Amino acid sequence: MHTVMASSLLNFTLPLSHHQSIPSSSLISPSNHNSSSNSINLCSLITRNIYHSSPFHSKRRNCNFKQRGICRSSLSDVPFLEQSKDELIGSLKLKLLIAVSGLNRGLAANEDDLRKAEAAAKELESTGGLVDLSTDLDKLQGRWKLIYSSAFSSRTLGGSRPGPPTGRLLPITLGQVFQRIDIFSKDFDNIVELQLGAPWPFPPVEATATLAHKFEIIESCKIKITFEKTTVKTTGNLSQLPPLDIPRLPDGLRPPSNTGTGEFEVTYLDSDTRITRGDRGELRVFVIS
Protein backbone atom coordinates (compact mmCIF):
# COMPACT_ATOMS: atom_id res chain seq x y z
CA MET A 1 0.00 0.00 0.00
CA HIS A 2 2.84 2.43 0.86
CA THR A 3 4.56 1.51 -2.39
CA VAL A 4 1.47 2.36 -4.48
CA MET A 5 1.06 5.70 -2.66
CA ALA A 6 4.67 6.65 -3.23
CA SER A 7 4.49 5.67 -6.88
CA SER A 8 1.37 7.81 -7.39
CA LEU A 9 2.99 10.82 -5.75
CA LEU A 10 6.15 10.46 -7.80
CA ASN A 11 4.09 10.47 -11.00
CA PHE A 12 2.47 13.76 -9.97
CA THR A 13 4.11 16.65 -11.86
CA LEU A 14 5.05 19.32 -9.35
CA PRO A 15 5.39 22.98 -10.39
CA LEU A 16 8.98 23.30 -9.12
CA SER A 17 11.44 25.85 -10.28
CA HIS A 18 14.48 24.57 -12.21
CA HIS A 19 16.78 24.59 -9.16
CA GLN A 20 14.39 22.87 -6.72
CA SER A 21 13.84 19.16 -6.17
CA ILE A 22 12.10 17.03 -3.62
CA PRO A 23 14.54 15.39 -1.19
CA SER A 24 14.30 11.64 -1.27
CA SER A 25 14.05 11.63 2.51
CA SER A 26 10.73 13.45 2.34
CA LEU A 27 9.06 10.77 0.21
CA ILE A 28 7.09 7.96 1.71
CA SER A 29 8.86 4.63 1.33
CA PRO A 30 7.95 1.08 2.43
CA SER A 31 10.64 1.17 5.10
CA ASN A 32 9.38 4.40 6.68
CA HIS A 33 6.81 3.58 9.36
CA ASN A 34 5.99 7.23 10.27
CA SER A 35 3.71 7.64 7.21
CA SER A 36 1.51 10.35 8.76
CA SER A 37 4.44 12.68 9.42
CA ASN A 38 5.95 12.13 6.00
CA SER A 39 2.59 12.76 4.33
CA ILE A 40 2.35 16.13 6.06
CA ASN A 41 5.93 17.01 5.07
CA LEU A 42 5.26 16.11 1.45
CA CYS A 43 2.02 18.10 1.35
CA SER A 44 3.82 21.11 2.83
CA LEU A 45 6.55 20.85 0.20
CA ILE A 46 4.02 20.57 -2.63
CA THR A 47 2.13 23.58 -1.31
CA ARG A 48 5.33 25.67 -1.01
CA ASN A 49 6.42 24.89 -4.54
CA ILE A 50 2.99 25.52 -6.04
CA TYR A 51 2.80 28.86 -4.24
CA HIS A 52 6.30 29.97 -5.25
CA SER A 53 5.71 28.95 -8.86
CA SER A 54 2.53 31.07 -9.03
CA PRO A 55 2.88 34.32 -10.98
CA PHE A 56 1.04 36.10 -8.15
CA HIS A 57 3.11 34.88 -5.16
CA SER A 58 4.93 38.17 -4.68
CA LYS A 59 2.95 40.88 -2.90
CA ARG A 60 5.02 43.49 -4.74
CA ARG A 61 4.61 42.02 -8.21
CA ASN A 62 3.30 44.68 -10.59
CA CYS A 63 -0.02 44.07 -12.31
CA ASN A 64 -0.18 45.10 -15.95
CA PHE A 65 -3.87 44.54 -16.57
CA LYS A 66 -5.18 47.35 -18.79
CA GLN A 67 -8.76 46.20 -19.32
CA ARG A 68 -11.57 48.27 -17.82
CA GLY A 69 -12.84 46.91 -14.56
CA ILE A 70 -9.66 44.98 -13.64
CA CYS A 71 -7.83 45.92 -10.47
CA ARG A 72 -5.71 44.34 -7.76
CA SER A 73 -6.83 42.99 -4.44
CA SER A 74 -5.30 44.69 -1.43
CA LEU A 75 -4.48 41.29 0.04
CA SER A 76 -2.89 39.67 -2.98
CA ASP A 77 -2.11 40.28 -6.61
CA VAL A 78 -4.89 38.05 -7.89
CA PRO A 79 -7.02 40.26 -10.18
CA PHE A 80 -10.76 40.66 -9.62
CA LEU A 81 -13.53 42.36 -11.59
CA GLU A 82 -14.70 45.73 -10.29
CA GLN A 83 -18.38 46.46 -11.01
CA SER A 84 -19.17 49.51 -13.08
CA LYS A 85 -21.99 51.77 -11.91
CA ASP A 86 -24.36 50.33 -14.52
CA GLU A 87 -23.58 46.79 -13.37
CA LEU A 88 -24.07 47.77 -9.72
CA ILE A 89 -27.40 49.42 -10.49
CA GLY A 90 -28.48 46.30 -12.39
CA SER A 91 -27.70 44.09 -9.41
CA LEU A 92 -29.48 46.47 -7.01
CA LYS A 93 -32.57 46.53 -9.24
CA LEU A 94 -32.61 42.74 -9.19
CA LYS A 95 -32.25 42.80 -5.40
CA LEU A 96 -35.25 45.13 -5.13
CA LEU A 97 -37.36 42.98 -7.45
CA ILE A 98 -36.54 39.91 -5.37
CA ALA A 99 -37.44 41.78 -2.17
CA VAL A 100 -40.93 42.69 -3.42
CA SER A 101 -41.69 39.51 -5.35
CA GLY A 102 -44.47 37.37 -3.96
CA LEU A 103 -45.96 40.21 -1.91
CA ASN A 104 -48.98 40.77 -4.18
CA ARG A 105 -47.93 44.38 -4.74
CA GLY A 106 -47.63 44.86 -0.97
CA LEU A 107 -51.02 43.49 0.04
CA ALA A 108 -49.34 40.42 1.55
CA ALA A 109 -46.39 42.28 3.11
CA ASN A 110 -45.60 41.97 6.81
CA GLU A 111 -43.31 44.20 8.85
CA ASP A 112 -40.19 42.26 7.87
CA ASP A 113 -41.15 42.45 4.18
CA LEU A 114 -41.65 46.20 4.48
CA ARG A 115 -38.19 46.64 6.02
CA LYS A 116 -36.46 44.56 3.35
CA ALA A 117 -38.19 46.42 0.51
CA GLU A 118 -37.36 49.77 2.09
CA ALA A 119 -33.67 48.86 2.50
CA ALA A 120 -33.38 47.57 -1.08
CA ALA A 121 -35.07 50.70 -2.46
CA LYS A 122 -32.77 53.00 -0.49
CA GLU A 123 -29.69 51.23 -1.86
CA LEU A 124 -30.89 51.75 -5.43
CA GLU A 125 -31.90 55.36 -4.79
CA SER A 126 -28.52 56.15 -3.23
CA THR A 127 -26.54 54.57 -6.08
CA GLY A 128 -28.69 56.11 -8.81
CA GLY A 129 -28.33 59.61 -7.42
CA LEU A 130 -30.76 62.52 -7.50
CA VAL A 131 -33.40 62.57 -10.22
CA ASP A 132 -33.66 65.71 -12.35
CA LEU A 133 -36.95 65.72 -14.26
CA SER A 134 -35.93 68.84 -16.18
CA THR A 135 -33.56 66.63 -18.17
CA ASP A 136 -35.11 63.17 -17.67
CA LEU A 137 -38.77 64.03 -18.24
CA ASP A 138 -38.93 61.84 -21.35
CA LYS A 139 -38.25 58.78 -19.17
CA LEU A 140 -41.64 59.27 -17.48
CA GLN A 141 -43.47 58.73 -20.76
CA GLY A 142 -45.40 55.48 -21.04
CA ARG A 143 -47.51 52.97 -19.17
CA TRP A 144 -46.07 51.84 -15.85
CA LYS A 145 -47.10 48.79 -13.86
CA LEU A 146 -47.16 49.00 -10.07
CA ILE A 147 -45.32 46.01 -8.58
CA TYR A 148 -45.13 47.22 -4.97
CA SER A 149 -46.68 49.78 -2.67
CA SER A 150 -45.85 49.92 1.04
CA ALA A 151 -49.24 51.53 1.60
CA PHE A 152 -51.14 48.43 0.48
CA SER A 153 -50.08 46.65 3.67
CA SER A 154 -52.78 48.72 5.41
CA ARG A 155 -55.27 46.60 3.44
CA THR A 156 -57.08 49.44 1.69
CA LEU A 157 -57.16 50.34 -1.98
CA GLY A 158 -56.20 53.85 -0.99
CA GLY A 159 -53.19 52.75 1.00
CA SER A 160 -52.72 55.12 3.94
CA ARG A 161 -55.44 57.29 2.44
CA PRO A 162 -59.11 56.49 3.06
CA GLY A 163 -60.35 53.82 0.72
CA PRO A 164 -62.45 50.67 0.52
CA PRO A 165 -60.93 47.67 2.31
CA THR A 166 -59.60 44.79 0.26
CA GLY A 167 -60.46 42.20 2.89
CA ARG A 168 -63.79 40.47 3.49
CA LEU A 169 -65.85 43.49 4.53
CA LEU A 170 -66.52 44.31 0.91
CA PRO A 171 -66.28 41.80 -1.96
CA ILE A 172 -63.64 43.77 -3.85
CA THR A 173 -60.60 42.10 -5.37
CA LEU A 174 -57.76 44.32 -6.50
CA GLY A 175 -56.22 43.45 -9.84
CA GLN A 176 -53.32 45.09 -11.64
CA VAL A 177 -52.56 48.77 -11.09
CA PHE A 178 -51.01 50.98 -13.76
CA GLN A 179 -49.99 54.59 -14.27
CA ARG A 180 -50.28 56.06 -17.75
CA ILE A 181 -48.22 59.22 -18.18
CA ASP A 182 -48.21 61.50 -21.22
CA ILE A 183 -45.55 64.19 -20.90
CA PHE A 184 -46.99 66.16 -23.85
CA SER A 185 -50.65 66.44 -22.75
CA LYS A 186 -49.67 66.35 -19.03
CA ASP A 187 -52.13 63.50 -18.46
CA PHE A 188 -51.46 61.31 -15.44
CA ASP A 189 -53.93 58.43 -15.12
CA ASN A 190 -54.08 55.84 -12.35
CA ILE A 191 -55.70 52.70 -13.76
CA VAL A 192 -57.01 50.05 -11.38
CA GLU A 193 -58.44 46.68 -12.36
CA LEU A 194 -61.20 45.56 -9.98
CA GLN A 195 -63.44 42.56 -9.48
CA LEU A 196 -66.68 43.32 -7.65
CA GLY A 197 -68.55 40.54 -5.93
CA ALA A 198 -72.18 39.90 -6.88
CA PRO A 199 -74.89 37.87 -5.12
CA TRP A 200 -75.23 34.25 -6.13
CA PRO A 201 -75.81 33.01 -8.82
CA PHE A 202 -74.42 36.02 -10.67
CA PRO A 203 -70.70 36.04 -11.58
CA PRO A 204 -68.37 38.76 -10.27
CA VAL A 205 -68.35 42.03 -12.17
CA GLU A 206 -65.00 42.94 -13.68
CA ALA A 207 -64.24 46.61 -14.20
CA THR A 208 -61.43 49.07 -14.80
CA ALA A 209 -61.40 52.37 -12.94
CA THR A 210 -59.36 55.18 -14.46
CA LEU A 211 -58.58 58.11 -12.16
CA ALA A 212 -57.64 60.91 -14.53
CA HIS A 213 -55.23 63.64 -13.36
CA LYS A 214 -53.14 66.44 -14.78
CA PHE A 215 -49.57 66.78 -13.58
CA GLU A 216 -46.91 69.43 -13.31
CA ILE A 217 -43.27 69.44 -12.23
CA ILE A 218 -42.91 71.65 -9.16
CA GLU A 219 -39.33 70.79 -8.17
CA SER A 220 -36.44 68.93 -9.76
CA CYS A 221 -37.86 65.57 -8.75
CA LYS A 222 -41.31 66.40 -7.34
CA ILE A 223 -44.60 66.05 -9.22
CA LYS A 224 -47.97 67.54 -8.33
CA ILE A 225 -51.12 65.85 -9.66
CA THR A 226 -54.63 67.32 -9.77
CA PHE A 227 -57.61 65.01 -9.94
CA GLU A 228 -60.17 65.56 -12.73
CA LYS A 229 -62.55 62.60 -12.93
CA THR A 230 -62.98 58.84 -12.52
CA THR A 231 -64.13 56.65 -15.37
CA VAL A 232 -65.40 53.14 -14.66
CA LYS A 233 -65.59 50.70 -17.56
CA THR A 234 -66.89 47.17 -17.18
CA THR A 235 -64.90 44.39 -18.82
CA GLY A 236 -65.37 40.68 -19.39
CA ASN A 237 -68.99 39.59 -19.96
CA LEU A 238 -70.27 43.16 -19.45
CA SER A 239 -67.74 44.89 -21.67
CA GLN A 240 -70.51 46.08 -23.99
CA LEU A 241 -71.79 48.51 -21.37
CA PRO A 242 -70.77 52.16 -21.89
CA PRO A 243 -68.21 53.71 -19.50
CA LEU A 244 -69.44 55.70 -16.55
CA ASP A 245 -67.79 59.04 -15.79
CA ILE A 246 -67.75 60.28 -12.20
CA PRO A 247 -66.69 63.93 -12.26
CA ARG A 248 -64.74 65.67 -9.57
CA LEU A 249 -66.89 67.17 -6.84
CA PRO A 250 -67.08 70.98 -6.73
CA ASP A 251 -64.70 72.56 -4.24
CA GLY A 252 -67.55 73.58 -1.93
CA LEU A 253 -68.85 70.01 -1.64
CA ARG A 254 -65.54 68.25 -1.04
CA PRO A 255 -64.43 67.51 2.52
CA PRO A 256 -61.37 69.51 3.69
CA SER A 257 -59.21 66.38 3.64
CA ASN A 258 -59.99 65.76 -0.03
CA THR A 259 -58.31 68.57 -1.95
CA GLY A 260 -58.15 66.66 -5.20
CA THR A 261 -54.39 67.13 -5.41
CA GLY A 262 -51.34 65.18 -4.33
CA GLU A 263 -47.58 65.38 -4.49
CA PHE A 264 -44.84 62.78 -4.69
CA GLU A 265 -41.13 62.60 -5.41
CA VAL A 266 -39.48 60.49 -8.08
CA THR A 267 -36.46 59.11 -6.24
CA TYR A 268 -35.19 56.73 -8.94
CA LEU A 269 -35.86 56.72 -12.67
CA ASP A 270 -34.48 54.94 -15.71
CA SER A 271 -35.90 53.51 -18.91
CA ASP A 272 -37.70 50.59 -17.21
CA THR A 273 -37.83 51.17 -13.43
CA ARG A 274 -39.23 53.98 -11.31
CA ILE A 275 -39.38 54.52 -7.54
CA THR A 276 -41.58 57.19 -5.96
CA ARG A 277 -42.10 58.47 -2.43
CA GLY A 278 -45.58 59.77 -1.65
CA ASP A 279 -46.55 62.73 0.50
CA ARG A 280 -47.83 60.30 3.14
CA GLY A 281 -44.73 58.14 3.15
CA GLU A 282 -45.70 55.54 0.56
CA LEU A 283 -42.91 53.72 -1.22
CA ARG A 284 -43.98 52.64 -4.69
CA VAL A 285 -42.06 50.66 -7.28
CA PHE A 286 -43.05 50.62 -10.95
CA VAL A 287 -41.75 48.84 -14.04
CA ILE A 288 -42.47 49.87 -17.61
CA SER A 289 -45.36 47.93 -19.10
Automatic annotation (TrEMBL):
GO terms for cellular component: plastid. Its main location: plastid. The keyword Transit peptide applies. InterPro entries: PAP, PAP/fibrillin_dom. Pfam families: PAP_fibrillin. It is found in: Plastid. Residues 92-286 form the Plastid lipid-associated protein/fibrillin conserved domain. Keywords: Plastid, Transit peptide. Transmembrane segments: none annotated. PANTHER family: PLASTID-LIPID-ASSOCIATED PROTEIN 4, CHLOROPLASTIC-RELATED (PTHR31906). This is Plastid-lipid-associated protein 6. It comes from Abeliophyllum distichum.
